[in-house]
C-alpha cells in the first residue's frame, strides 16, 4: 500500500484526475470553479518560490497579478493587438517591472522587505484605481477577448479554456520541480536558512534573490493574464491587498516551502469557500482561528504535516528493524540451539 502511495503515483493520479474532470461532470459552474482554482495555483506557486525557498515574503504579489491582467486587457482592448502577442508582452512587462522593483526592494531584509512590498502593492492598486485614462478606473476593462485559436484548437467553450489553464499549470509545476531539484534550488534554500553563511561560501545572494523575485512576478503575471482572458472583465479590486492575503492563506494551509502545497491549499480553501458562500462576509471568522491553529501546530501546512508524519513512520520502522537485527545477532542462545541440531544430523 505504501509503495502504491508514493509521490510519483500521487502526482500521476492528480494529473489523470484533472484531465478527466470535465468528463465527470456536465456542470459548467464546477468546471469554472476548478479553472479558477488552477489560475490561483499558478499565482501561489510564484509566492511559494519566493517566500518558501528564499524566505522573502512579498506582499505585492496581487499587484503583479493585476499588472499581468491589465497589461493583457489594455493591449487587446485598447491597442487591439493579437491575443497571443499581447499575452507574451504582458509577461515581458510584468517581468521588467519585477526586475526594477527587485533591484530596489531586495536591498532590504525580513520584515522591512515585507513592509516595502506591502506599500508597493498598495501603490500599484492606487495607480490602477486612479489612472482612468489607461485603466478605466473603477469602471474596469470590459470586453477582454478570449484566447484566439491555435490551428484547429479553439478556446470558445468553458472546457477548452479549462484545458488551456491546466496546460499552463502543469508547465509551472514542471518548472518548479526542475528548480527545486536543481543546484539553483539548493542555493535558494541555503539563502533561506542563512543568507550570511551562503555569502561566506561564495553564493551571490543578490543575483539569486533577484532571479527568484523576477520568476515569482512572472508566475503572478501569467496567472493575471489567464484570469483576465478567463473572466473577460477586470477591475482594480484584483490588485487589492486582500488578494495577496488570499494567496498567502492558500500557501500556508497547503504548505509553504513544499512542491504540492499550493495545489492542496488552493483546492481546499476554494472549494470550502464555495460550500460556505452564506458566510462570505464573515469567512475570516472561520478561516482566521483555523489558520492560527494550523500555523501553531503545523507551520509547514498540511503537506508538511503529512511529510513529517511519513518521515517519522519510516524512521521508526527502520529503527525497529535495526533493533530486531541487533537482537538476532547478539543473542548467544540461538547459536546453542542450532549447533546441537547440526550435530544430531551429522551423527
TrEMBL record:
Location(s) in or outside the cell: Cell membrane
CC annotations in GO: plasma membrane
InterPro entries xref list: ABC_transp_permease, LivM-like
Transmembrane segments: 7-24, 83-104, 111-128, 162-180, 210-235, 247-272, 284-309
Pfam families, A to Z: BPD_transp_2 (PF02653)
Signal peptide region: none
Identification of the protein by name: Inner-membrane translocator
Organism: Neobacillus bataviensis LMG 21833
